[in-house]
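It would be a great kindness if you could assist me with a short task in structural biology. The matter concerns a single protein, recorded as an amino acid sequence and a row of backbone structure tokens. Kindly check, if you would, that the fold set down in the tokens agrees with what the sequence suggests. Thank you for your consideration; the sequence and its tokens are set out here:
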Amino acid sequence: MDRGILRQTLIGLICSLMVIDCGFHEGWSTPTIPKFNDEDPLSATSDEVAWMVNLMYVGVAIGSLIPFVLMNSIGRKGTLLVTTIPKVASWLFIGLATSTHYIFAGRVLAGIGCGVTYAVMPMYLGEISSKRTRGPLGTLTAVLINVGILLIYTIGLWISRYTMAMIGMCAPLLFLLAFAWLPESSVFLTRKNKLIPAERILRWTLGKENVEEEFEEVKRIVAIEDKCSKTNLGEMFKHAFTKAQNRRAFRIAMIVLSGLSLTGAAPILVYQSYIFNEAGFEISTNTSIILTGIAIVVSGCICVMLVRFTGKRMLLLIAAPICVLSLATIAIFFQLQSGDHDVSRFKWVPTVFVVIYVLGFGLGLNPIPLAYIGEIFVYEAKVPAAMFSALYYALSSIAVVKFYQVSQEVYGTFVPLWTFTAITFLIWVLIYLFVPETEGKTLEQIQLQLQNKKLLSAT
């Protein structure tokens, strides 16, 4: 195998430790929350449980803004190394917590670490990789987050909160030890006018001596970055919303991000143990949770394999109705159950259709939105777009989790599920009407598509 590909693969594997750790934090609530007031010495009210989930999203919003301050001063590598501090601290707070307030602090720190990772890791991998490995390394994040979720489901169900935290802490520590020996991005070094080290790193990562063409491309990227860095944030936001193509890009971003956050995945995955217990199916709750973890990993892998052939838009249009039908079926079950109808023969319905829902969500609504965000904005609008996307995702996820907790307690499980069914159906319609296909198109072709209203509506 080519030396460059081997080295880039090695870098990708080391970076995967931080991404898997994000999956640990994303999935932590599911096996842990049912243990409060039972196996775990800590007790927690339903409101406190909801905040344990939501405060991570608050941290993600904060963390996604930090790279804009750090990246240009200490580099991509330096920013990722610093990110291990809140990651390790979060596990210490969570594992050693003697009150819910320490867990709250740990969840915010976890979110900050994940927010920085989500923002910087794809950029770092994109800048050290060649054209041949950029695609596979780019899809690594979505798949490995799901792997982390499955691992924490599998391990966390059988061990204490303290043991889980100590195991989780190993990932950022191993990353710190290994990543310290890896090179900085050649783009950052070129921007700092360290041209000789930048060219040397290009030769090492690409595994060849003649990197003149690639180095010229790096210089062009740096020239564009320098031009944009002279524009203040206010002007960036003004530019982002005054052009029609940017407004259309933000509309697309809102639709696909709504599919990620407003369709109920976060509360369904977090509270799935309560859903399974309420249904009373014979299969154990732990087995059902592991099945959903396997489903999200499998569907994510299928998405990676299919997206080049089907396109991103088609996967969204396939995934949304799967989620609609699954949510509606589960809602019907719980509405009949709440009305004292005999549903004893159908106790399997919530388990089976939650797994089907997760398969649909993982096939399109989960992995595809971030790919769109990276493609539809011109370079000058990427900073406002990244800030908007992070804040919208965080705030909408917080609202959805809190809505589920309150409406489920007051009205019953079927009410939030019917609400998510209606929202998902609406998003399906909006995807069909307003979201174009971008797969297999250059960034210039995508921008031309966004400029031409007729061309946009034709896709």
